[in-house]
Amino acid sequence: MMVGQAMKYGNLVLERYDFLxxxxxxxxxxxxxxxxxxxxxxxxxxNLQKAIVQEKKI
Length: 58
Fold this sequence. Notes:
By secondary structure, the protein is mainly alpha-helical. The chain contains two helices and two strands; from the N terminus they run βααβ.
């Protein structure tokens, strides 16, 4: 598990549409420019697994 800064709500809170859009983007081919991008995307994938998904805008 990667270590990152603590989030305000403990987990990501996303509207369903935004969650699906991010998941679709992460499934496509990614041209990573440097090591930092890969690290951030790995942390995002990890946090999406625990995300709170809302049906309507928050």
